[in-house]
Write a structure and sequence with these properties.
alpha/beta, six-stranded antiparallel beta sheet, Rossmann fold, seven-stranded mixed beta sheet
Length: 675
């Protein structure tokens, strides 16, 4: 998407019709628009956002008072904004009117003629620059809702979900939840036996309980990470203390805590292994005595010639049938020899018995072998667990000793830090316990829910209507699960990508030795070379803001052609910034001005002219500056003793305010010459 021009008419500070044509060249892709504070920068940005999506930026005030005051005084009752843009080599014109005229239309320019598009204009614009993403491309820097918390970190999770196209899917899940509840209520009415309805009612309770616990779990995991970061920062302060003994004790404590963490992970792995070993060998342990007795019985019987019997049943039958002994002697029926051989049938072994005997011996022998293996492996595991437990306890004693020694040091600041650390340690322990309880509860509830679902699937004799409703509920459940899985997968996969992009932009924007710390729940913070979070000042917040916006724009650009039935594709759109450098230190501004035009095909910056930040000269030197505009405020008031602020373009000065004008309005003018 490339915006060719915007025309505003009677919109806020703009009286009459005012038009701006933006730079559209691939190289010189940046348009600078200068205005004094309070003159109309935010109004122009919101005019574009309103024209496209009928919305305003979070900081836009008095949203019901859009009609220009002078136009209203002269009897005008409507206001209009027109945006002309290109997309995929086609030109479109978007027109939105407000006030007495409420209209929104999109036209395609075909052979010089305007042809209104047939589909819903809202859906058409949303397919080019999704509504949920528009606020990141059209960004109000001064009024940004970006919040830096007390730890110097910002949360970008909602932004990431917006850029990944979560919103439609999330609303779909909400709708599916409502549909599920309605279907369960209907099933309760039509199920005469109430059996399936009662089960679905219990499933509803499980769904709500699991959702609530998962939310609590997420909040606790976020809190845990926050406490751990805060404790790490306290440790950095203690480790950087000017007191040698404190530094030594803190270093020793950190070493032991790291070792304890490593051994604790090993201990948990061995405990899990113990459970697996018990499952693998428990049946062998129970069969150990029986195995010994069985093998002893078989061996003793073999020695005594009973098992297997000394004669094979088939051999005896063959002798009797042939009436001839294996030695060649004749055996006739009725003879004494015949009668003796026939008696052997009672003691002879048949092939089935022999086969069963062989299998019994084989199995008992295997049990005997596994019994020895199982005992050895379990003994080794128990010894390893005991050893790890002993080392962990020893390290805990050492850590407590270091903490006690630090507390004894007579220094008010050290005592305050150590007290804060103890408090954070307790919060971490409590939060870890809460996480464990929640995970167990979720696992237990999920298992119980599955049991009820299986029970429901086995119910027979439902009426046709009840079967249909149950089928619909099952379909809703499957759809919800598919969407939830897709969202989890998308958010999980973006974490490493986002970290890499942030590091890349940080390297471009800053020359200072800063790095970015990012938590698993998408909180960002700047840290110095000692891994200490930078205090959340305005300048650092502005830097984080640029990193945040740059990363989102880059991700949205890469996801423009996403083929997904669940997630909304990304967008390639102009980046329109209102006052992006206002809170930024002058030493950072040139680097950011150099890199911003590389992010997008088109960049539009509305700002106060501040020569000290060298934004305009940097853009010009980089060959990125395409067009420059400025707003002149005309007022009917007299100047009196008021000073006049001025713009400077190519050695010329132009007044930013004109007094004694016929009426109050803001006039948009393009700078004729610019160096």
């Amino acid at each position: 998407m490339i915006i060719n021009s915007v025309t505003v008419e009677n919109f806020r500070s703009f009286y009459g019709e005012q038009e701006i044509s933006f730079a559209t060249d691939r190289e010189k892709n940046t348009t600078l628009i200068y205005a004094m504070n309070g003159v109309g920068k935010t109004n122009l940005l919101n005019a574009i956002l309103w024209c496209l999506h009928g919305e305003f930026s979070p900081s836009f005030k008095n949203r019901e008072e859009i009609l220009n005051w002078e136009a209203k005084r002269r009897g005008r009752k409507s206001y209009h904004v027109t945006v002309c843009f290109e997309e995929n080599e086609s030109e479109y014109i978007v027109k939105r009117s407000g006030g007495d005229i409420d209209s929104f239309k999109v036209f395609e320019v075909t052979d010089g003629n305007l042809v209104e598009i047939r589909q819903d204009p809202r859906l058409f614009i949303n397919s080019i620059i999704p509504r949920d993403m528009a606020g990141y491309f059209i960004s109000d820097g001064e009024g940004s809702d970006l919040v830096v918390d007390s730890d110097g970190m910002i949360s970008v999770r909602r932004s990431i979900r917006d850029i990944l196209g979560f919103n439609v899917a999330e609303r779909t899940r909400e709708d599916l939840g409502k549909i599920r509840s309605e279907l369960r209520s209907e099933l309760k009415r039509v199920d005469k036996d109430k059996e399936i309805a009662d089960i679905e009612e219990k499933l509803q309770v499980f769904d709500e309980s699991i959702a609530s616990k998962r939310k609590d779990l997420e909040e606790n995991q976020s809190a845990l990470e926050k406490y751990q970061i805060q404790r790490d920062q306290v440790d950095k302060k203690l480790g950087g203390s000017s007191t040698v003994e404190v530094k030594r004790l803190q270093s020793e404590r950190s070493r032991m805590e790291s070792e304890r963490t490593r051994l604790t992970r090993e201990f948990r792995a061995e405990e899990s292994k113990k459970i697996s070993l018990i499952r693998e060998y428990s049946w062998v342990a129970f069969a150990h005595k029986l195995t010994k007795e069985g093998l002893d019985f078989i061996d003793e019987s073999e020695l005594k010639g009973r098992i297997p019997a000394p004669y094979n049943i088939q051999l005896v039958k063959d002798i009797l049938n042939e009436s001839e002994c294996i030695c060649g002697a004749s055996i006739s029926p009725g003879s004494e020899a015949y009668e003796r051989i026939q008696k052997l049938l009672g003691e002879a072994a048949d092939p089935g018995l022999i086969n069963r005997l062989q299998r019994a011996r084989s199995r008992l022998t295997a049990v005997k072998t596994l019994s020895g293996q199982g005992k050895a492996r379990l003994d080794e595991n128990f010894k390893r667990c005991a050893s790890l437990r002993r080392h962990i306890d020893e390290l805990t004693v050492g850590i407590d000793r270091c903490s006690a020694d630090i507390e004894k040091i007579d220094d008010e600041q050290i005592s305050a830090w150590e007290k804060e650390r103890r408090s954070l340690d307790e919060k971490i322990r409590e939060t870890n316990r809460a996480i464990g309880r929640l995970q167990e509860n979720i696992e237990r509830s999920t298992k119980s829910k599955k049991e009820y679902q299986d029970k429901a699937s086995r119910i027979v004799g439902l009426s046709g209507r009840a079967k249909l409703i149950k089928h619909k509920i099952d379909v809703v459940d499957r759809l919800d699960e598919v969407i939830a899985t897709a969202l989890d997968k998308a958010e999980g996969s973006i974490h490493s990508i986002l970290k890499a992009k942030i590091d890349d932009f940080l390297d471009k924007y800053l020359r200072q030795d800063y790095q970015v710390k990012m938590t698993s729940d998408f909180k960002l913070g700047l840290v110095d070379r000692n891994d200490v979070l930078v205090p959340p000042g305005g300048g650092q917040g502005a830097i984080l803001s640029f990193i945040y916006i740059s990363s989102l724009i880059s991700i949205a650009r890469e996801r423009r052609d996403l083929d997904s039935s669940i997630l909304t594709p990304g967008a390639i759109a102009p980046l329109i910034f209102d006052a992006p450098f206002s809170k930024l230190d002058s030493k950072y501004a040139p680097n950011i001005a150099k890199e911003l035009p590389k992010l997008v095909d088109q960049l539009i910056i509305l700002m106060y002219q501040d020569k000290g930040k060298e934004v305009d000269s940097t853009l010009s030197n980089e060959g990125k500056l395409g067009r420059v505009y400025y707003f002149t405020e005309e007022t009917a008031a007299e100047q009196g003793q008021k000073s006049v602020q001025e713009y400077r373009f190519g050695g010329k000065t132009i007044p930013a305010t004109v007094y004694g004008a016929p009426l109050d309005k803001v006039v948009v003018r393009e700078a004729e010459a610019y160096e």
